[in-house]
Amino acid sequence: MTHFRIIALIVIGFTLVACNPQGDQSTGTAKQGQNSAEDIVAFEPNGYLKSDRVDLIKAEQARIKTISAYEYALPIVGLEQWHQGFTQQAEYGDWLIYQNRATKIPIITANTTTPYVMSFANLAESSYYIEIPAGPIGGLIESIYQSPQSDLGVVGPDKGKGGKYLLLGPEAEVPANHDADYVVKSTSNLVLVGTRIIGLKGDDYQKTLAMHKFYKVGENGSDQKFIQATESPQWMGNQPHGLKFWEDLNKVLQNEPVVDRNRFILTQLRDVGIEKGKPFDPTTEQKVVLIEAEKMGNAIAMVNTFSRESYKEKHWPDRNWLYILNMEYLDHMHPNYYEVKEIASYTYEAVTTSAGMVLNNVGKGSKYLASYIDENKEWLDGKNTYEIVVPKDAPANQFWSITVYDNDTRCIIQNTQEKSDISSAMDNVKMEADGSYKVYVGPEAPAGYENNWVQSNPEKGFFVYMRLYGPLETFFDKTWKMPDVKMVN
């Protein structure tokens, strides 16, 4: 037990350094000598390792492997949180409707401006048909690894004309007598399916929604269920801490076939109690490694996602607005490596990807940018008031929105105002004489800008997303430019 306690203390020390924004930032590494090989490795005069170092080295190996596995597991555990929240209210194949802000509070970096129509399925139990109607629909089929299997609707193969999709699991064969327009073979058994109906309201919206179908092969969807998501959700979408992170990961892996995508995770975790086909019952020593690896893995994810020196690419070289999604390949398979840092960073703060998020379709889809710091490169802090200027002629064919998120949960900010975003689709938002907009985030509303204000929590940090729906050419050629977030009195 002694060597596990030593490793636990080392990891805690690392975690405190990684999470302390006031710490030494002169280099990207730990201070010299901290958890170095010289602290652990020692040899006898004859060249063999000293016998009292063997257990230390074994524990260090388990720690390193488990921390590495955490990064690969982030997308899986992130989507599993939504899956667990979904099954509190609905069954596979049911459509759960997230209609308003209150229903979306648990979803990390949720978009509050359009309803979500969402479902899950376990393809290990059955293949499914999806019927999507014609119309202004953006949708997706997402694997548990948060890799898009297909877009649906306007940027999907049906091109907004509607169609019938056959959805198969990784081990299923395509039936010879199917009548689907499109066949999607998922890389995972557990999948999320969702759409957004953009721009339709009232009866037009309801008619389009009613034509959504999701049902098992062998059925006809005549009993399709549409369920309103609760406004009092009992779950949160950010990855859990401690042992539950690994419990949730194990639950998913036991339902999935062993493929290249998860084989590495299983390889790294086999010495700490997670093995395919075996119950997860870690020993006391294994629990120590798992719990401390989650702490360190979470700190690493914070650095990759929120760090002032983040690897994320800036949209404008002289601005602090960053791309949220920094992958080159949506299956995460770069020809030369696996884009683990990129997908882990994204899925730490967000959920689901789609081709529509990376394709530069002028006037279609959406584009997202994020800001975590102000013009002076200081963290956005809820005790301050900030001004976000959206210049005139914002390049959005439909509308733009600014949404505020809690930096701890990465979910929409919860405040007494019960408001988290400002958008050009709102009727009461104030526009300046030159056609620009000023959005404010702070503890109190500036006089005259009550309708352009989102209330912050003085004791917490936050970050903001800028969304452009139907992005126009001036976004892509960068001739339209957002100023940095500015702290004001």
Count of distinct strands? 21
What is the CATH architecture descriptor of the largest domain?
Sandwich
Question: How does the overall form come out from the CA principal axes?
Answer: globular
Main beta sheet strand tally, sense and closure: 6 strands, mixed
Roughly how many Å is the radius of gyration? 24 Å
- CATH fold call of the largest domain: Jelly Rolls
Distance between the termini: 55 Å
Unreliable spans are 1-34
Our estimate of the beta-strand percent is 15-25%
The main sheet orders its strands as 5-4-8-2-1-10
The CATH C-level name of the largest domain is Mainly Beta
Domains (count): 3
Count of helical stretches: 11
The CATH homologous superfamily of the largest domain: Domain of unknown function DUF1214, C-terminal domain
Q: What integer is the average pLDDT?
A: 90
Helix content: 25-40%
Description:
The chain is an alpha+beta fold. The protein has three domains: 2-80 and 238-306, VPA0735-like fold (Orthogonal Bundle), CATH 1.10.3360.10; 89-228, Sandwich (Immunoglobulin-like); 322-488, Domain of unknown function DUF1214, C-terminal domain (Jelly Rolls). It has eleven helices and 21 strands. A hairpin with a 2-residue loop joins β12 and β13 (337-338). α1 crosses α3. The longest helix has 34 residues, at 54-87. It is globular, with a radius of gyration of 24 Å. Mean pLDDT is 90; it is low at 1-34.
